[in-house]
Amino acid sequence: MNKTTTREDLLLYAYNDCGLADSDRIQKAVDGDPIIQSDFNEICQVLDLLNHSVQEPSQECIDRIMKYSLNR
Amino acid sequence: MSKLQLMDDKVLVGLYQKGDQSAISELIRRYKQRIYSSIFFLVRNRELAEDLFQETFIKIINSLRKNHYNEQGKFLPWALRIAHNLVIDHFRKQKLMPLQHDSEEFSVFDILPQKEKNPVERIIHDEKMELVRALLDKLPKDQREVVILRHYGGLSFKEISKMLDININTALGRMHYAILKMREVMDEKKIRLKE
Question: Does A11 map to a domain?
Fold first, then answer.
């Protein structure tokens, strides 16, 4: 990891949670340094796995909320 | 795409406060996965998660109707804060930690609704779900909380730091160590998602 791009930077970048200027700087670091690229890929692999477990409530649960809202 | 789907949260809140039911329906549609997943991975029980999700929206509805909402368009962080507080209240009342709800005989994943999938897809999906659960279980509570709020809740690290009353670098640090830990477990289990 070089001095200007930390793992925290990579996390912010992975979540699109940094400013445009920082995004550009981090992308260049990822593209230009195999170690940083490897670190970034590791982060992406974990986040990709987490994406497989998004949950949602049942339709009955939503119907109950809507019914409550209508009766208020 | 419907007209409502193009509206931002602030406009939808305003419409709902004027009595438009379709506006709250759109807010639920827009955020149900983020809010519900955040609750679910904290309490790890589907029935309880549904109760808390419902309670969260009842509080949201009551606040909006009483014009108590003043979050300047930040609907999701506000909604997640309500959900998070309800989860904390629940465990405070129960005086137990939100860990290890399952037993060997019973898994919350046994009662999750199965979307239309063929048997092979279902097996792969279930395996990944089980794996994610195992990964999250390995994390200390404070790290797991940040992962859930960032990944499933969709809050920014700044919003998480505000919600949990911690420094943004602490939030980032917890996420960083959580990723390292999960990566370590993936390596141990020889999990490779992408070739």
Answer: yes
